[in-house]
Amino acid sequence: MRILLTNDDGIQARGLEVLRNIAAELSDDVWVCAPDTEQSAASRGVSLHNPVRLRKHGEKLFSVTGTPTDSVIVAMKDIFKDKKPDLVLSGVNRGQNLAEDVTFSGTVAGALQGMQMGVPSIALSLARGFQGANSLPWETAEAHGAKLIKDLISKGWPEKVVLSVNFPDTSPEGVKGVQITRQGHRDFQMSDVDKRAHPRGGHYYWLTYGAQKSNPPTGTDLRAIYDGYISVTPLHADLTHEDTLMFLKDNLEKR
Questions:
Q1: pLDDT in tens, 131-166
Q2: Do the beta carbons of residue 114 and residue 161 sit within 8 Å?
Q3: Distance between CA atoms of 214 and 220, rounded to whole angstroms?
Q4: How is the chain split into domains, by residue range?
């Protein structure tokens, strides 16, 4: 099985090293194409207005001067132009991608691009800030990642769906199990700005993003992570809201 790895934390990220160890348990044909520098919150950004350069760091190890989406596109169209991979894995992200986060996430974007180009894809993230740990327990993702991916591959999923996996920030032994979840929604606004005075006059802003807990219902990705479970959420790129679609059809098209 040929596997392509990417991420949004950059080619030097610890999470990518963890993902390489996970992938090595699945195959001996593992390739990396990831951003040169951190691209967190890049979402599905594509570098249409700047050239993207490809750099080779070693055998099957590449980076691009762009986003996670750029990385997957360049890999598919150049590195794998003769034989595309069988699986795309994106991550392991330094921090959770839950609820509204998935629309910001470059990690999820890398998986979505793989899916869009016809390859089964999984995004993997490691939560932080919920269980009181002082450091990220990378060993949790590494301990549970390969088996979970094997199980998911054995069951399969639809072509137009990506799987978003979030590991709880607990020890490997502290993981309570796996829950298949839906995307949650927080009951507060995470985004804020820190407005500061510029020494040469005027103001500038740092955009901030909180990490406090909400009160989500059972069955959501948020609740699973809060409770110490691995969350697996099937996502797709179709953002159509079906109820509103039918309401507008009934009330506008039939006039």
A1: 766 789 999 999 999 999 999 999 999 999 999 999
A2: no
A3: 12
A4: 2-184+215-239
